Amino acid sequence: MDIHERNMLNLCQLRDIAKSYLATLSTVENPDFRLEQAEYKDEDGTWEIVVSFLVENLNRRTSPLLAVNIDRPYERIYKLVRLDSAKQIIGFYFFSQ
């Protein structure tokens, strides 16, 4: 097995690593973590992954004139996370693409 193969993680491992670091960002009972995107960067041996999860929607409208179904109790947010070869987070960013 060469060094490139040893650095490869499967998609479930990537999601679980991100989930373990990001779980404290959500107060929702079931934040429904999802791996949205993953890319291995050969040039520096890192992973860039995008994960999404649910958080409480703090911007809910309270006007009685609005339709009931417009505001949801939760919203899904997306974060870009960079992992080094030791599976440690080396970057945490807003994801806007």
Question: How would you summarize the topology of this molecule?
Answer:
Layout: H1 3-7, H2 11-22, E1 34-41, E2 46-56, E3 74-83, E4 89-94
Antiparallel strand pairs: 1-2, 2-3, 3-4
Report on the structure:
- With 97 residues, the chain is α+β, with helices and mostly antiparallel strands.
- The chain has one domain (3-94).
- It is built from two helices and four strands; from the N terminus they run H-H-E-E-E-E.
- The chain has helices at 3-7, 11-22; strands at residues 34-41, 46-56, 74-83, 89-94.
- Strands 1-2-3-4 form a four-stranded antiparallel β-sheet, covered by helices on one side.
- The longest helix is centred in the N-terminal third of the chain and has 12 residues, at 11-22.
- The mean pLDDT is 83.
Low-confidence stretches: none
Note the gap between the termini.
Answer: 35 Å
What structural category do the secondary elements indicate? alpha+beta
Strand order of the largest sheet: 1-2-3-4
Strand content: 35-45%
Oligomer: single chain
The whole-angstrom Rg is: 17 Å
Number of spatially distinct domains? 1
Major sheet details:
4 strands, antiparallel
Mean pLDDT, as a whole number?
83
- Helices, by number, come to 2
DSSP helix fraction: 10-25%
Give the overall silhouette: elongated
